[in-house]
Amino acid sequence: MQLKYMFLLVLVSSFISCTITDRTEIDQPGKQQLVNYETIYFDSLQQEIINRNIIIDTLMIKNEELYYQIDSLQYALEAANSRVAVNKDFVIPDSMIFSERRFDLTNDRIYDKFEKIFQQELRVAHKFIPRSGEYFAYFDSVFTEFGIPLDVKYLAIAESRLNPMAGSSVGALGIWQFMPKTATGYGLRINSFIDERRNVFLATPAAAKYLLNARNYLQKGNTDDWLLTFCSYNAGVGSISKVVREQDAHDFFDLLMRVDETHKYVWRAAAIKMIFENEKEIFGKYFERKAPILQDRQLKLIKLKGHYKIDEWAKAQGTSIGKILELNPWIKIYQRNRIKYSAVNNVVLPPGEYLVLIPDGEDKDLQLLANIENQFMNENDGFITYHIVKSGDNLYNIARKYKTTVNSIKLLNNLRSSTIHPGQKLRLYGDVSSSAIKKTDKYHLVKKGETVGSISLELGVSQTTLIKNNNLNVRNGIIMIYPGQKLYY
């Protein structure tokens, strides 16, 4: 932001200095000469552009230095918080193999780069080594299927340290740090309810497809180097292709990357692999690994044609919504705004098919589960429903019909005013949730003039049962229902 203002100030100054007069006298040895205004203007502007570029380059250098200072401080902080002893006598080997390529560490310049990165990764190895037990077996199975070198799994550590909740300042997210546009291009869904960049079972195959596409693209330019393909995951395949063309080199070790972080990215992955391969020699022990992600767990398919809360589905599966969130970080907590009080947290899935990771167990309620999953097949009958505006409708009447408020409808639909028009589709919070069929899928359709009391007499069930099964609101002693509402009993 400061840079932008600096540039504007320079341009304004240049304009003012050049518009004082249309013609200016310039002293030269022995004579005076009249110089055209346009010449002064463009010459001055060109010089200011040159000066500005120098300033930008200087700021970029300073920012880069600041970045690495902050990065170093972060590593130092993590090291201070670590109580893991490191064998200071460990000697880095003269070479190593990474992705079928030999890294020559006898070269002083290369060794110096590698050694610094190696020491940085040592300080946080106690965090990512245990996590590897959860993911590495799954990664290997995916990359074997796609025919990709298995060392690519170390890129995930360089990206996120195997933390599915990891995010970057530029918007990358998940273990494989997908940017939103790239993620959606590879079929990962991102909306108010889910972000599948955090779904390791979808993001890992997407990362494999990206790498294969990048490799094919580079091969068309006669570049057949997995290390450069890995670089493209950090910088973009277009950027790597440009560097190859500019420097007329096709080998990772022969190229100077435009951004040093891209080059370090692969070196980091190589250093991480060395740590894994020498874990006992470096730390004097093997770290305890987390259990594989599918151990004592299973993926369950869930299909929805509407927006539904899945709390009761989780219970019917013999688990809890909290456990579902823990195992499935791609599911967001959806906050339902209210006027007077703080937002309500809900776990809602939109229409679609999902593989949800759940713990193994035998406490499933199969009948309840079948009822809930049948309910999920009803369109627009869940947490979010829709209302098509008809002639004569207004927000007040719609709000009364759906037991909500005008302000809530406006918030949910990003309306700046109360003006609506026939044919407009309004999103609304639904009144029927899966909890409404906790014990039965039988329901009564409310008619005009009916009350909970009259319905309970007609059906032979208590008012308490109707209130509990349908989460009915009671206001000033009145049980709120409306014509057309389904009451489960």
Output the keywords:
single chain, 489 residues, alpha+beta, Lysozyme, 4 domains, two-stranded antiparallel ribbon, two-stranded antiparallel sheet, 16 strands, elongated
Describe it.
The protein has four domains: 2-79; 128-283, Orthogonal Bundle (Lysozyme); 297-441, no CATH class; 442-489, LysM domain (Membrane-bound Lytic Murein Transglycosylase D, Chain A, Roll). The chain contains 18 helices and 16 strands. The chain has helices at residues 2-18, 37-81, 108-122, 125-146, 153-160, 180-185, 200-220, 226-235, 237-247, 260-277, 279-283, 311-316, 321-327, 366-375, 395-401, 406-412, 452-459, 463-470, and strands spanning 23-28, 31-36, 95-98, 101-104, 297-304, 308-309, 334-336, 344-346, 348-349, 352-359, 384-388, 425-429, 443-445, 474-475, 478-479, 486-488. Strands 1-2 form a two-stranded antiparallel ribbon. The model is unreliable at 7-42, 60-68 and 431-439 (pLDDT under 50).
